[in-house]
Amino acid sequence: MTRLSVNINKIATLRNARGGNVPDVTRAALNCEKFGAEGITVHPRPDERHIRYADVREIRPLIRTEFNIEGNPTVRSFVDLVLEVVPDQVTLVPDGHNAITSSAGWNTLENKSLLTDLCKTFHTKGIRTSIFIDPDPHMAEGAAACGADRVELYTADYAAGYPLDREAAISRYLETAKAAQAAGLGLNAGHDLSLENLAWFIRTIPWTDEVSIGHALISDALYLGLEKTIQAYLGEIRKK
Question: Catalytic residue numbers?
Answer without folding.
Answer: 43, 70, 191
